[in-house]
Structure formats: structure tokens, C-alpha cells
Amino acid sequence: MKINREFTKNSQSPYENIKFKKASTEILNPDGSLVFKLEDFEVPEEWSQVASDILSQKYFRKAGVPNKIKRTEEKNVPSWLSPRVTDEESDELSFSSEKNSQQVFDRLAGAWTYWGWKGNYFSSEEDARAFFDEVRYMLAMQMVAPNSPQWFNTGLHWAYGIDGPSQGHFYVDHENSKLTRSSSSYERPQPHACFIQSIDDDLVNDGGIMDLWVREARLFKYGSGTGTNFSNLRGASEGLSGGGKSSGLMSFLKIGDRAAGAIKSGGTTRRAAKMVVVDIDHPDIEEFIKWKVTEEQKVAALVAGSKICAKHLKKIMNACHNCEADGESCFDPNKNPALKREIIEARRNEVSENYIQRVIHFAKQGYKSIEFDTYNTDWDSEAYVTISGQNSNNSIRVTDDFINAVIEDKDWNLINRTDNSINKTIKAKDLWNEVGYSAWACADPGIQFHTTINDWHTCPESGEIKASNPCSEYMFLDNTACNLASLNLITFMNEDKCLDTNLFKHAVRIWTLILEISVMMAQFPSKEIAKLSYEYRTLGLGYANLGGYLMSKGIPYDSDEGRSNCAAITSLMTGTSYATSAEIASQLGPFPGYQQNSKSMLRVIRNHRRAAYGFKDEYEQLHVNPVPFAVDDLRDTNLGIEAREIWDEAYQQGQKYGYRNAQTTVIAPTGTIGLVMDCDTTGIEPDFAMVKFKKLAGGGYFKIINRTVPTALEQLQYTESEISEITNYAIGHGTLKDAPNINHETLQEKGFTDVELDLLEQNLKNVFDIRFSFNEFTLGRDFCLNTLNINEEQLSDMNFNMLASLGFANEEIEEANIFCCGTMTLEGSPHVQDNHLSVFDCANPCGRIGNRYLSVESHIRMMAAAQPFISGAISKTINMPSDANVEDCMEAYLLSWKLGTKANALYRDGSKLSQPLASKLVEDENIEEDILTEGPTPTEKTIAVAKEAAHSIVYGSRNKVPDRRKGYIQKAIVGGHKVYLHTGEYEDGSLGEIFIDMHKEGAFLRSLMNNFAIAISIGLQYGVPLEEYVEAYTFTRFDPAGVVQGNNRIKNATSILDYVFRELAVSYLGRNDLAHADNTDVDFSLGTGAEEGALKNNEIPWKLVKKMSSQGYLRGQENLMVINSDGGTSHYGSPEPELSSSAVVSKNISEQQPLNRVQAAKMMGYEGDACPECSSFTLVRNGTCLKCDTCGATTGCS
Question: Active-site positions?
Fold first, then answer.
């Protein structure tokens, strides 16, 4: 191939006009101890500290790099391109780490050029030189980056002669097409990030279950990720050849999950990245769907239970020792009232009797304390380690038949794997509801649309596409691999803020060639993968920074123009890549599997072309038509023209020569490599925050506005002074001097001197909330204790608010906060017009006052705009707010299917137990006071309702309920708070009184609820209709509020009162419109006693009748009869004593981490959890995975 020079000149170093700088980096443990440190390494001057850190910490070879090398000449290879080896004869020979970014760029580009030369990819030596130089320039200028395994492995043998024994890899020799076992670990690198592997329903043989864990381990070791469809494995109820029943799919998934977790724990390059896919008709699909939900409930139980046990056991121990009785009387609950009280309280909270007795015996032996480990909800904690399902992304594979069955409310069959018989028939909609609930509850499983994926399959004659890689962007045949690279879109913008299409196509052409060369030079972890990767040669070229690109142009992410830009760029990239693939095929021939699949591949190319030309229909063999490119929404007319015409070339060249690659493009999450390129946004994602915290070389951060914001403001015609004011509004002034309310003068009145003010000012520059500067570490312990009169207990409390203790009100603190630290959003900013705010919308609300964020639909529609022009798929997080409901999740899935996307991964804020809710982070200290003073109190509201009713109805005297009355007790958990609702009924079944008990709440709230219930009861007995109360109190809003557990009909409430009157309305008024779930799963209803359905013959045992009737109310009468629907009778005998106990644990318990870590992270736009590698709280959603903005660690495979 001919290679043109666009960035470099012949006979001149590509680094000639690039300035380099010295940099240093270090990694510290949370305790401050040093993990890694490297000083005085060289990187390009424009690289940020984060990009420099990642290159040096992750991608520099840490050992074995010789300082003296020599070339080993090879026949037919130019001398400058010959491999290097260690110069063993040199007296100055030594080995160390790579210390210059040019070493890395040279070894990558050199290895690609070397193998490209050996594979006859270049027309001449000059073309090879041009290729070598252009690639090095693009790497240094952060224009493009390959996936992480390329940085880890490629070029180590070519540049330094580094080698080692074979690790069981295979490759296909490009010269003779023979499958060969590798004899070296690095001569042929493993550059692929993404793998899809098959599994057979066999326990120990090759290709079977246990063999897969070995193959996965081989991939994880080299930093790659893998996915597998496990639907071949038989279900738990299916028979085995030797008799008995299979242990089922889930038992083996748990084994694989533990294996992946162990590799993650021991590895140094990255954690394991794994995808588990199961078909929607598998016999165990219901258990798989609920897997992670169930496991997270175990974590909640472990966390809550451990703390409950620790609390009560400690009290029992103290009760034993804080006793003044003689001898062993202190240990006898009959003689020690305090001990008896604590034992009873522990039993009420379901503390094990065994442990209660153990602690008392322990105390008898003289021990003063007991160790009982408690757990937290941190995702890398011991609680999570004990459960399964946490080391993979889970997806279900759904067909159009299933989706249509859901829409038409039809039955759905689960199919046995062994004989294809029907295992079970269920309603498709019921299964769909389970999917929606699980996605809402724990963000898993994702969905892959099997029919759509295979409609766009270029090689259907070779088999179906059944699975994907961990991030869901690579979808192809089992036992194939894909290596990724992504272009940084910002670097291809010209002075007019338009895409330079010539440079962009040039880069796409070169990097398509690089990825193709990588297939030829690679070794693979198994024979099957080596063989099929050679035969189909799939590539994964994509782009990053789309969100930053659109913002810098002043275009909203959620707009028709934004989506048209996305479609045009994607179309131009994939069209150019396929045209390049055809060009390579003209010289080296198409991929070996092409002839068998040529008709299908050309059909897919024609469908890409139709979408580029804006066709709404006339597609070939598609069940769901794609979203066509709307060129009229594009201002950049040149981009629009080229995005269409490139497909003419790609199709015509393919007709002549075929294609070298079965697939060429995907959109990867670009986690680590996005940071190496200093991208503001990753992949196709929007930005996650307006204000970024830029890392400093010496440690710490400083606050900057997103660098695309000033550019966007310029594009929107704001003046320089206006941009400066807007920027200050977002990032603040960094000082309390002249701040409103809290400033140097007011602080001096509190006892601050110039010394403390100087210390404070130095710290304020780096914080994002002034409350984090007011602590003993900034001001000094003596000053806090002696001058400010703060006690030891307050100082040690991580949630202590020093400013509030000094007398400043919350409103005053917030005003000073905005002045000093900024709002971290453009909402409410001076000068910014309302119609421009959409340009700056992010995936989540920004800062402490931001309310705007991108809708769920905007994420899906952006994916739908790109999908018609992608060979594979798109890795993207679809963000949902915390108040999204189950129905919203199911609607998002359906919209994704209707718009022709291939997969969908939802993430609702707070759906992970380990991650705190963004909406609950910054709470007003006076929240209870605000609730009570905000509008009428409950008592006032009750009086108002009674007065209103009195105007329209005349009532008699008070009608008291009978002394011995019917009713029921409903226990529930509302927003994490236990609520017991007691009702008392008249003889006719109507409601006469209620009691409300808040379990373990403070005296104030508990008493308030009790008295409120009394007021309601008196109103009911004087004839106020229950309907009036229901209308008044449903939909009232105050905390506690949120998810309701323990109630079959009510699933969510906006307040305790909303919950109570919804329950009463459903039970006594038949107001099913106020319920969230139907009554099909309820065996009987309490309240009015009205019959809700005839009892079926022989289906109601006396044990069920006991549930409906109070034995105590009947006073043990035995001669009672139940008349069945058929006229038959049965007798109510004396009940047999039954003992049972159960613990109710809230599923929404989350560990309260220190305020200055979790809150800080969430305010900065991060997820609020610690990175498992560097412990920084800088994790962000990245495609379907997570990445750390500090160290670049990612849960994906890019």
C-alpha cells in the first residue's frame, strides 16, 4: 500500500516539532506508603499529569529494558527495521525501566512496521518509513491510541529482545497458513483486548466448563477481556447421562466468577474483565436474571446483621460487667435487670441465642470486650467478596420473537438444553418484568438484541453471533478476537471547528492497516481462536471524545444536529475503514471466510450505504430498520457529503476485491486509553461533569473548568469578559476574602488570627466545599480545642460541621461556598442564556445546585444514530436518575430495540448497593426542622380536613370501636425505616382506628406519629370519611421516603403518610389505583373482609386459614366451620404450636463512608466509590464499565 505523509516530512524526525518535558509520578497506598515511583521520565509537553502517570505507571515496561542494544539483520528486511537485541558485549550494559515516551512510541510503531513489511503490506521501503513516522507522530500528539494489551506487549521483543517461554499460545503462519504453537511469549505479542469464547456442556474435557476457566485465566493475565454465552449448559432440573440431576447453570457460573475474582486480586495490570451471556429461553433464566439482586441482598443482610449483632453483643458484655451484684449474679438475667433488658432487646433484633449465651460465658471468664467483625458496602469489601456474581457483566440474549411476545402478552417457553423439550411455560411479560426490576435494582442484566445483531452479521453462513466481549462492543462468532484502537476526535478539528475530513480519513486508513497487521502478527490463547481470528480478521477501530467534540462546537448532545454529527463521523470512519479493507484485499486477498459469506457481507454493506443516504425503508433482510442519517440537520455540509459518498467507494471496491476483514469498527469505552489521549469524554459518552479536578505532579489537584466549555462559549458568541465571569461562577474565586457571610472579618470575630486565615486560604484553593477546610488538620488541633472550644468528640466525628458549630446558618455557608468554590455548573450563571444551557448538559446533574442532566432517551437516540454505521456495537452507559422506576427501565429497553441498537446497559443512580445516592449526599442539617415548618403540620392538616368535612356532612356523636376488635398489623420498610401500621375495625369491617409505630426511631418522631394516628382515629370515630384523609395525605412529600419493602401492593412512597394512606385506601376503599402491584400474588386481603375470589377446591389448608383468622381473637374456639365453594365443610381444629423466626433486613442499607471522601467524589461527578487499584474516589461510568480518572484502571477490556 502507498502511505502518504500528512503530519511528517521525509528525512526528518516525527518528534522534530514536538516539545518534551521531564515528569515524575508516584503511587501511594491509602496510608501514605509508597507503591511506585518514577522520576525524570520524558513525555510531550502538552500531556497532562494524568496522561503522564498512566503511560509511566501502566504502559512503561518496568524491567528488562537494556541500555545497550544492537540490530540483528534479517534477510529481506531493511536494516533500520531489523529487530533489536541486548548488546551482551557492552561493558556498560544494564537493565531498567522504559523512561522516555519516545521509547514506547518507537517500539509500538516499529513492531507494526516490521510485521507489516514481513506481511508485504507496503508498496516500497519509503511507504514503510512514512508509516513508521506518521504513527509515531499520532501517538505523541494523542490523536489515536490502541487498546491496552498493545501498550503492554507489542514491540518488547522487536525493540529490546525481551522474551520468555511459551505460555500455551498459537498463531497461524502468514506465509504458509499453518496453525502453529508459539515457542516464544513475546516474539508474537498478544495485542487483542476483546475475546469471545465458546463453552461445551462438558465438565472436564477440552472446550468444556473447567477448561474455560483456564482459557479465561490466560487472557486475564495479559490484560484482555472475554465473553461467553453459557446457554449450552443444561438447566438445574435436567438429567445427567449417569442418572440424577444436573447442578445447573448457576452453580458453574459461581465457580467461574470466583476464579475471575481471584485473578483480579492477584494481577497488577488490571482486574479481570468478563461477560456472561444467557439466552432468554434457558431453563435457569429466571434465576440468572435475579442473580445479582439476590447477591446484593446478602450483602445488605451481612452489613446490617453484623452491625446489629456487634451493637447488642457489646451491650450484653457491658451489662455483665457494669453490675454491682456479688458472684455470678451479674451473669444471671433473672438477677441482673440490665442484662435481662439487653438480652430481650437482642432477641427482638434476631440476634442468635447461641451468640448471646457465648458472650455471657465469655464475660464470665473475665473478658471485658468481644470482637465481632462488621462489614461495609464498599464494592471491594469482605462483604462483597463473600458473594458471587460481582466479577462479570451479565447480559441476556433476547430475540424479536420474545419482544413481540411481551408486547402481545403471550406465553414464553423455556427450553431444555438436552432434548429441546419444553421445561416450563411462563408469561413473557412476567419474565420481562423481572428483567426490568433487576435492571432497576442492581443495573444488571444488560440486554443484547439477538435478531438485530444477526441481521447485520457479515458472516451468517459461518454461524450465529451468540455473545460479546465484556463491554458489549465486539460481537462476532465464538472463539474470535478483536483488537481496538480509538481516534481522538478533538485533534481532527480544524480552525473552523469542523472535522478535517482529509486528515481523519488518513488516520482511519493507517489505523485500519495497523489493526490488520496486528491480526497477522498476533498469538492467541487457543487453537480455535487463532484459527478463526486468522480466517475472519475482525478489527475494532473507533473514536473517543464525541461529547467534547460536540460541546466545543456549541452543539447540544441531545439535539438533532448532535446526532447527525455523530452519524456522519461514524459513517465516514466505517466507510473509510471498509474501503481500506477492500484496498488491502486487492493486494493480499480477502479474508479466508469471505467467499462463503460474500453475498451476505455485500448485503450488509448495502444496508450501511442506504442508511448513509437517509433511506427510511428498502433495507434488505432487516427485522428492525435503522435510524437513517439526516444530512439536513448538519451544518458541516462537506462532512455530510463525504459521509455518504465514502460508502459508494467501499461497496464498489468490495464488489471487485472483497474485504480483508469481516468487521472493521466498534465504539469502545476507551477508558484508560481515553485518559492517555487526555480526552474530556470517552467513546460516544457525554461529559460527566462541568468542572474537572486536574492532577498536579507533586500531588493534589486543582480545579479547572472543562476545557471545551470556553471554546463552546466562544462559538456561542460570548465575549472574553463574559466567559471569565461564567468560569468564575463555575469554579469560584478560591478564597474567602470578601466572601459574603463567612469572610476574614467574620472569622476574626470568632477567634481566627492571621496565622489560621493563611492556613485556611492555602487549603481553600484545592477544595470544592469550604466545610472540608474547616478541620483540625488545616487549622491545628490546639486552636480548635482551646480557641474555638470544640471538644474531642466533635473533632473525631467525620461528619462534624465546624462552621455550623461556629454559628453560621446553612444559607450563609452555601452563599460563601458558591463564592469560594463555585457551583460546578453553568446553571444560574451570569450571561448564559437559557437556550444555551443544553450545550453544557452532562450525564449527571453538575455541582451542588445543578438540576439539568441528559435524559435516558438522549443516550439511546445517540446510540441509534451511530449504530447503522458500526460493524460491531457500542459500549455505552445509559444513565438514569435515582427516581426512575421499573417501568422506565423496561421502556428504555424497548426504545433501544425499536431504534435498532444492538445492546443496552442501564445504570440507575443508586442501583448499586456499594454506591451512595447522589441525591442523598448533601443533606440539610436542619432537615427535620425544615420538614416540620414547611407548610401545615400533620395536626393542622387533620384539623383542616375535619373542618372541611364538617361543612358538608352532619355527624352524630362519637362512635367508639368495640373493646375487642378485629384488624391487622402491616409491617413495612419505607426508605430504610421500619413502620408498623395497626388497624382497628368495627363489627361491619369498616375502619375505626389506626396506630403508627416507627421502630427504633427517636422519641420525637415516634411520638409525633403516635399522636397523629390518635388524631386520625378520633376523626374516623366522629364520622370523617376515610376518603377525605386519603385525598389529603397521599402524595405528600418528606423524608423518610422511597422504596417500600414488605408490602405486596405498595412499592414506593413519597412519605410515611403517603404510604399509610395508600395502604388504608387499598385495603378499605378498594383504591387499586393507588397500588403499584396487582393482587394476583396475594392469597387473601385484610381489612373489609370482602371476598376477592372464590376459594378453589382442596387448595386452602387450615394453615392458610390460620393466616386470615386470629387464634387469640377467637379465644381458641375449636368447633368452627369453614364452608367451601362446593358446599363442603371442614373444621377448624386446635392449632399446633409452630415456632419460627425471621430477620427482616433492609435492602437499601449502605455504609456511611467518611463525608470528606464519598461526598467529595459525588460532588466532583464521580461514582462515590474507591478504585480497587489506587483507592482514589475517582471512578466514573465508562461505557458498560468503570474507569479510574486517577490511575486509569478500568473494568473493561480497552
Answer: 469, 471, 473
